[in-house]
Amino acid sequence: MTAELVRGQNHPLSQVRLEIRVSAGTPVVASATLGDEHGRARGVEGVAHPGAPTLPGLEVSRQAAADHRLAVDLGAMPEAVHRVHVLLALPDGGPASFGAVAAPFVAVTGLDGTEVASYTITGLDAESAVVAVELYRRQGAWKVRAVGQGYAGGLAELFSDQGLPEPQRLAARIDEAVSQSLARAVPAPPQHSADGDRTRQTAVPAPGPDQAGGSHRGSGPAAPQQPANPYGVPAPPTTPYGAQSTTAGGAPQPAIPPVDPSAATQPSAPGGPINYSHPARQTAAPPPPPPTAPPAAPGQPAQPVAGDATGWSMDERLYNQIWGMFEDLARTTAAYRSAVDFADSRLEKELDQALSDPRSRIGGQGEAARETARAKHADLVDQARAALDRDLAQLSAESDVVEPALPPAYARWDNPVWHAYRVPMEIPMALRLGDLYLPESELLRIPMLVRLPLERGLWIDAGFTEAYDELFADAHELRHRAMETAVALAARLLAVYPAGEFTVQVIDPTGSGSRALAPLVRTGVLPAPPAQGAAGVADVLTRLTQRVDLVQMAVRGGVADSLPSGLDTAEQLLIVNDFPHGFDDRAVTQLRYLADEGPAVGVHLMMVADREDAQAYGPLLDPLWRSLLRLTPLPDDHLADPWVGHAWTYEPALVPPGSEVLQQVLTLVAAARTKYT
Asked: How far apart are CA 58 and CA 454, in angstroms?
């Protein structure tokens, strides 16, 4: 059965010889880049394009066309190639952007034409080049992922983002090659209006916050492309969830006429027309539309509805809705602060003018001018606050509706959804790490979501600061609170993965975390007791390091099936408490290795530590701290927002005092694991 992907989803590939079919409705240029495990292109020689269409295991079309067939032989790929990015671009002389044409459709098929996975690239606007899909290796197996990363700067910007040298020259070379074959470009297929045809625009899923493109659900100025956010992965700077966006925010998407992919033809290919349709595509009903709010009274805002964002599932709709709420809060707060800054600067200017005018010193003219300036200032601030309060009221009403509807992966521990918890069959899109809020809206909490699987480790900062003096008697209580935060996050990860697909191991050299670790130990979700002492630290790190080495060698050698039968292939989370106690130089090196290489092969790190305790190692550990996402056991405004300059306050997702929900959930996880094994 065909997998119809949405942005960010992946699907396994059971065949190594494939075709990637593209139907765009307008002539496009199809190219591909070969990349390493980090997605970086392997130089100009690793780019297949109309001027150099053939590479080992890959061949693309020599011309711009409305429809393409790309031949891929994954078995012939060099060992150093871990990712194949399929690129689409609009040629010179055609439409200026993908927002003005039908959404491109990409299908991965077998050589017999059987469709394996497909992806409709929606949400594009001003972009003229896009990374459509990527084929990538993971633990020896190949998968396809829907990407949809658009670039308004065209192929040159895309190549620059992939680290290719002289991207402008390479893009110009492709344009020259295309211009020589443009006369053979296939015209756009005719529109089909038959009632039985299923269009690919029935629903337009918004991009998840970990992908590029898309539009903000409200109006506002387009957000410029920005650097990585404080969480360390490319992302729209106003969202803590994910990736760089070139069109976050802005006007609604233009209307896109439906295109019937079955009408597409490829004259240059032998055998007549290519049928991009699939029986399921013609007969299956489209996904249900998102819920709609009841009509609002005249002059009143619409009533919020949980899941009213776009998406192909309720989880995706809620995920995109939360992202929209985050952007709305960032935007309205930035507007308020800007208005207050303007009022302050205007007041200062008018006061300076009043003082510099000698006439104002006679009689009461000077005081009257100052009072007038202060009145204007107060009026401007009041207007800005009224607008902020209006937006906050709307967002609060939306939050009140969304929070009760969240699935366990997105919900707080006090959400009743946990009382109906069952071990899931699939991994969710994202996980809630806590809440975010701003000083102007302390009562409004926005869930902080990160995509799964984790792309970087976590660091629960157990450092004692002056701000904690009134809350904790000593540093030991703070460290206990940090371990409780780590256990709550580990329990969430265990709860949202299918049975047997996630394992937690613990290093607790001095045993100081035993009280906080009790729920994990009592329920039996740990495969082994927490490791203690230098010997325990060495044993756990050696085993995990060997696991990373074995999986990496198997993946690079294409022999994943030869892994030892006893090797645990589940995702691994290592919790390290009281670092660097019990760590020698070799153990520190192994820990850095796990932080750097582990996430790519399913080994993740969660450290509960005070950075000051590791001062003896000097700058050696600076890369380690920078590679981890820093979280705090208490609310702290350490998450910077480089787009609008906000300092977001992070609040950890802790279990309410006296609640038994954590124990109940972990008991179900342990029971499911026992049944699974």
From this structure: 30
Would strands 83-89 and 458-461 be described as parallel, antiparallel, or unpaired?
Answer: unpaired
Place of tokens 């927490």: 530
Which residues, 6+ apart, have CB-to-CB distance to 402 below 8 Å? Answer: 304, 306, 318, 321, 322, 325
- The answer, yes or no, to whether the previous bond of 104 is cis (omega within 30 of 0) is no
Q: What's the token pair of residue 98?
A: 């993908």
pLDDT band at 301 (very low <50, low <70, confident <90, very high): low
Non-local CB neighbours of 31 within 8 Å, separated by 6+ positions: 47, 48, 49, 50, 60, 86, 87, 88, 89, 155, 174
Which burial class, exposed, middle or buried, applies to 420 when counting CB atoms under 10 A from its CB (0-12, 13-18, 19+)? exposed
- From the list 581, 578, 592, the residue with the least C-alpha distance to 548 is 592
Give the lowest-confidence range in 231-235, 567-571, 646-650.
231-235
Reported as a single tens digit per residue, the pLDDT across 143-178 is 999 999 999 999 999 998 888 888 999 999 998 888
Q: Are strands 603-609 and 629-631 parallel, antiparallel or unpaired?
A: unpaired
Inter-residue contact 79 to 558 (CB < 8 Å): yes
Residue with tokens 């459709």: 105
Q: Which amino acid is at 415?
A: N
pLDDT score of 640: 85
The Cα–Cα gap between 147 and 666 comes to 34
Q: What is the mean pLDDT of the chain?
A: 80
Which of 172, 179, 160, 190 is CA-nearest to residue 94? 179
Query: Are residues 264 and 23 in contact, defined by beta-carbon separation less than 8 angstroms?
Result: yes
Task: Please work out, in degrees rounded to the nearest 5, the angle formed at the alpha carbon of residue 451 by the alpha carbons of 445 and 453.
Answer: 140
Which amino acid makes up residue 93?
Answer: G
306-317 per-position pLDDT tens digit: 888 888 788 889
d(CA 264, CA 24): 9
Nearest Cα to Cα of residue 233 among 462, 548, 501, 453 = 453
> What's the pLDDT score for residue 224?
31
Phi first, then psi, for residue 201 (nearest 5°) are -120, 20
Residues 6+ apart with CB under 8 A from 216: 223, 248, 249, 250, 324, 327
pLDDT band, residue 239 (cuts 50/70/90): very low
Contact between 135 and 83 under an 8 Å Cβ cutoff? The reply is yes
Residues paired with residue 87 on neighbouring β-strands, in sequence order: 31, 131
Over its C-alpha atoms, the chain yields an Rg (Å, rounded) of: 28
